[in-house]
Amino acid sequence: MNRIMLLFGLLIAPFAGACPPDQTAKPHLLAQKLTRSKALHLARTAAREHGYDLSKYVLDTFGGSGKLTSDGTEWLFGFVCSPPEARPPGCEFLVSVNHSTGETRVMPGM
Prior knowledge:
The chain is an alpha+beta fold. Helix content is about 25%, strand content about 25%.
C-alpha cells in the first residue's frame, strides 16, 4: 500500500503546481477583489458603451453610490443629469459592478 501511495505521489507531484485551483475552477473570477477606483472606471466605461455622454452626468452622492452592497458582492454607482437641480424624471442611471468578476450592469432611470 505504501508503494502505491509513493508511486501516486511521484506521478502527481510534477503537476501539482501547474494550474492554481482557483483559476481553473473559476476562470471568471479576478485574482483580487476590485477597488472602488477600478470599479468606478469599469462603471464609467460601461456607461459610455451604453451610449451615455458622461459630460452630461455627475456621480450621485446618495447614500449608497460608490459603495459596496450590503452583502459585499457589488459596487453601485449612480449617475444623475448635470445640473442635478434641473434634471427631468428618468435622467439618471445606475451601474453595478460585480466585486469579484468585474461584470457590469447598466440600469436606466425611470
